[in-house]
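[Meeting: bench + compute handoff]

Bench side (C.D.) handed over the final construct sequence. Compute side (W.E.) agreed to return the predicted structure before the next meeting so the bench team could plan truncations. Sequence as handed over:
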Amino acid sequence: MLCSVTKLFGSLLMLLVTCCATNATVFRDRPAFNAASQNRHVIDFESVVNTDEGFNVDGVIFDNVVSMGMGTQQGSKVLVGNSVGEFTRLTIFLPPGTTAVGCDQFSTPMIVAISTGESVMMNPGDASTFVGFVSDQPIERLIISLDVPEPTPPAIIDNLAFGQRRAGNEPPVPQLLVTTDTARAVALDSVTTDSEPFHVLSSHNFATDGHTRITLFLVGVALTSADQAFVTVQAEYTQQHPFDLPVEATGPVKELSWISQVTVRLPDTLAAAGNLNITVTVRGKASNKAPLRIE
């Protein structure tokens, strides 16, 4: 099933959110950024294989105008996005639901910007080589660029951290992944990895009761097996008649660490239910609703 999730990522996954201009908070101090963010995932590039083309690390896509590869800076492996003529531009496409991103950037001068419009000029005299952004709107891209006469320095980054903004002591809000083309819930049969429509009973089943189990995918929360008791899933008919779906497992997606998965059993009451709206609640915080079909 994990391989199926990886295949889905490039063409199917998105969040039911709308990006718009916002005023993100800029941090030049990593501890302050860490305090303002949560569910952080860090790519330190130590285990990344050298490449001259765009590549994907944990679902984060790196793209440069020319070649890029791994180098060494201050004793650590770093990502180097090479310049072409007088122009440098390294674009990092962030996972859905990212609202906090930061990195160490050692090549200066260099402009570091995010897709919501905020930017910082990293200068040689700066006291800090770190820059981070925290926004209440999704951050789709981090762009490191410069357009100055040669020799134009390359983009060099290390310790890329991405996650979600922290709102006081409130638990994070889960966000249910949906398909890009129809905005329906991304869900897979936990045995066959088939997508919808699902049937309450299935002959391909590891359980003796014959009931289908489906797996839903969330971002914005970092679930482990110990979180199962704090997760509920509701299916709602179009006439707003809700049913609880028994949650049987929770945890991270191995190949994409920023995605969590929730496996539920389809009860007899949903036989031939047709289109349902699915909502996942984690520690009292409800996700967006997304449709799913049971035949």
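W.E. noted at the follow-up: Confidence is low (pLDDT under 50) at residues 1-21. C.D. will use this when planning the next construct.
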